[in-house]
Amino acid sequence: MGSEEFYPEERPVHPVRVDGFWMDEHPVTVVAFRRFVKATGYVTVAERALDPADYPGADPTALVPGALVFRMTSGPVDLDEWRRWWSYLPGASWRHPYGPGSS
Q1: Per-residue model confidence as pLDDT tens digits over 75-95
Q2: Which of 1, 40, 69, 72 has a 20 to 30 Å separation from 85 between CA atoms?
Q3: Are 2 and 11 within 8 A, CB to CB?
């Protein structure tokens, strides 16, 4: 794993062992996920209330459920900072991919 040729954070090249895991044969559609949520009552991380104890020192008013949302840039950007094309959007989730009111 890793690379000596690209980004410093990818160094050094080193062996990695990955334990077995299951992967679905087909992608999960929104329709199938909606059925799963309805049948199980599952609530995604993006929809759950955040526990201030998990984020010591954070402003409690900023601890609201949401998700990272891709933002199109006006052109090429340096790839050293992910915030140039992703932003945290309160209220964003699989039900509201672009935030409250979206579907």
Answers
A1: 888 888 888 889 999 999 999
A2: 1
A3: yes
Number of independent structural domains in the chain: 1
Closest of 7, 5, 1, 4 to residue 82, by C-alpha: 7
- The pLDDT tens digits for 20-79 are 999 888 899 999 999 999 999 999 999 999 999 998 988 988 899 999 999 888 988 888
* Cα separation, 85 vs 95, whole angstroms: 21
Calpha distance 85→47 (Å, rounded):
22
Domain that residue 17 falls in? 8-90
Task: Record the pTM.
Answer: 0.67
In a domain, 21, yes or no: yes
Whole-angstrom distance, CA of residue 103 vs CA of residue 93:
10
Token pair in block for residue 97: 């991919």
